[in-house]
Amino acid sequence: MTKTQTKQQLTFEQFLEKDIAEEGCYELVNGEIVRILPTRQHDNIADFMVRQFDREVERRNLNYRVSDRIMIRTLTTEGKEQGRHPDVSVVDKTLWDSNLAAYTAFFEPLQLAVEVVSTNWEDDYIDKLDEYQRLGIPEYWIVDYLAIGSRNYLGNPKVPMVFVYLLDDNGVYQATPYRGTDRIVSRTVPELTLTVEEILGA
């Protein structure tokens, strides 16, 4: 994932109001606008997961809205506002419908966020993990389809994995790793039948 930065110190609300001439996906990182340029394989996996979650939500008539366009406000340990754009977001539909005239941006926690790992893998494993935990997102998936994270996470030899982080009663993420033919267990969508291999095949 390639990033192009502009040197502007912005708040989250200023970022939302910013008129960016060039089309694309952007995040607010440490006060600067950062352009995210995913690969086609990255997009294939994210799109596949949006469809899987969306079908399950519709099949079970769950009160969720699935999207790949949601922006969320998070905070760093220093209290700096960030504007994060998860690859897949599952949000409470009541929250979504509460203000339909608003931007597709939330100060409240999503129900579930998915990040498909790119070359800047530390963002997903460290920075976003910390920010999403602090915001109180109950479920966070890291999809490391290229196995580019540290061996501390992926083992040796490294293999593609999906990590599902669930908030415990103390508001701390507890991780469960999945690989190969493992069925990924979701607290948000418990009847979802999805394996790591199926995600990799997208």
CATH 2nd-level architecture: Alpha-Beta Complex
- List the domain count as a whole number: 1
What would CATH call the class?
Alpha Beta
Mean pLDDT: 92
Counting DSSP H or I runs of 4 or more residues, the number of helices is 6
Oligomer status = single chain
Structural class computed from helices and strand pairing: alpha+beta
Order of helical and strand elements: EHEEHEEEEHEEHEHEEH
CATH topology: tt1808, chain A
Q: What spatial order of strands do you see in the largest sheet?
A: 4-7-9-10-11-12
Would you identify the regions where 5 or more consecutive residues have pLDDT less than 50? 1-5
CATH superfamily: tt1808, chain A
Q: Strand percentage, roughly? A: 25-35%
Distance between the termini: 18 Å
The count of strands amounts to 12
Note the overall shape: globular
The whole-angstrom Rg is: 16 Å
Helix content: 25-40%
Description of the molecule:
- It is a single chain.
- This protein has helices at residues 12-17, 40-60, 93-97, 121-135, 151-154, 196-200, and strands at residues 2-6, 25-29, 32-37, 64-67, 71-75, 81-84, 88-92, 105-106, 112-116, 139-144, 161-167, 173-178.
- It is an alpha+beta fold and 202 residues long.
- It has a single domain, classed as tt1808, chain A (Alpha-Beta Complex), CATH 3.90.1570.10.
- The strands form three sheets. It has a six-stranded mixed beta sheet with strand order 4-7-9-10-11-12. A three-stranded antiparallel beta sheet has the order 1-3-2, with no helix packed on it. It has a three-stranded mixed beta sheet with strand order 6-5-8.
- Strand 9, helix 4 (121-135) and strand 10 (139-144) form a beta-alpha-beta unit.
